[in-house]
Design brief:
Blueprint: E1 2-8, H1 21-31, E2 35-42, H2 46-59, E3 62-66, H3 77-85, E4 89-91, H4 93-105, E5 119-121, E6 125-127, E7 136-141, E8 144-149, H5 153-172, E9 175-184, H6 189-200, E10 207-212, E11 217-226, H7 232-245, E12 249-251, H8 257-268, E13 272-276, H9 282-287, E14 297-302, H10 306-313, H11 317-323, H12 328-341, E15 346-352, E16 367-373, E17 378-384, H13 389-408
Parallel strand pairs: 1-2, 1-3, 3-8, 13-14, 13-15
Antiparallel strand pairs: 4-5, 6-7, 7-8, 9-11, 9-12, 10-11, 15-16, 16-17
Helix pairs in contact: 1-5, 2-3, 6-7, 8-13
Amino acid sequence: MKAEIIAVGSELLTPDSSDTNSLYLTRQLNETGCEVHLKTIVGDDQKEIEGILRQALERSDLILFSGGLGPTMDDRTRVAVAAALGRPLAPDPKILENLRRKFASRGFRMSPNNEQQAEVIRGAEILDNRLGTAPGMWIEEGNRYIVLLPGPPRELKSILEDHVLPRIRKLTRDKHLETRSFYITGMTESELDSQLAPIYSAYPRIATTILAGTRHISVRLYRWTQEGSNSDDLDELAARIQDKIGLAIFSTKDESMEEVVGRMLQESKNTIAVAESCTAGMLGMHITRVPGSSEYFMGGIQCYSDTAKIELCGVPADLILAHGAVSAEVAEALARGVREALHASIGLSITGIAGPGGGSKEKPVGLVYIGISDGMHTESRHRIMPGDRESVRERSTYLALSWLRRFLMRDDP
């Protein structure tokens, strides 16, 4: 079944708001056997909404609207859909009474403009909204299905899970999306694709996507199958990818690098302390996003200035004078110093030039050194990170976590 998502709201066409509902809807639809082939964002214009729906009815089996069901003048989804289908709108007495009860139970008087939320398109099934005031609708138009959902995410999710997904499952029967995922670090996108393309191109029935971000690269394999069909070729392709890039894969589940590293620290009974210069707390923040991180995270030192590096992490002043704050020698001294200062078994450090200024020919913007020390071994690595200031900081944070993972594996990062 081909599905289409139409997000309504002029605010979604500005830089201040994003359409997060579509990501959730896509995942849920895929899992119930619907292939989302198009997403559209449209402003609060009735004629635009009408036109998009008419086009959608020609190309999609299932059309989901999100937003535009509120009580204000710019909430036009209900009216636009009715007009496009040539069906009248009429108030539903039961919905109207339910709205009045909801407002009264909260100690509010219902405004007259809320009454438009009780208007129902003829022939639509009402989808109760237990968390808000705008009910959803399920409409059948020939062999097409149209779903109207409110914009607030909590309300949309509640209606979708309570009323919409059970209906869709009956329509899709046994069709579902099979996927395999890999989360990779320590390789560039082009390097990864050059290694994988000869492998995945031999499996034309399986779609392969490679998505690069500042934190890691994701590889996803997927195909539509019927219940009971075997997935031998999907498993075979996944195994070949695993064999090819091996340790660069840090997870095959939807988990972050900090979760993987946290689990490894717990299992190895190691503790970690961090010294951060250019990232100024970002590394510690990501490590502590994981519940239970207090078991292995001893703390961090934001040693942004040379004085802080010297006084808080014990870096010799002459070392900074000889090599500069952004150097292998200082990164290693920071790792040793923070490990000792915070009584951790491993020290991890980042020092670099995040930009946009401060670079030179010898040490350009984006140059980052990462140090690691466990008392017996101390080492450092460096990279020149692309992107703006925030990208450099985030890439540096995740490179440090990646090298920590390899260090815990006792493999050369």
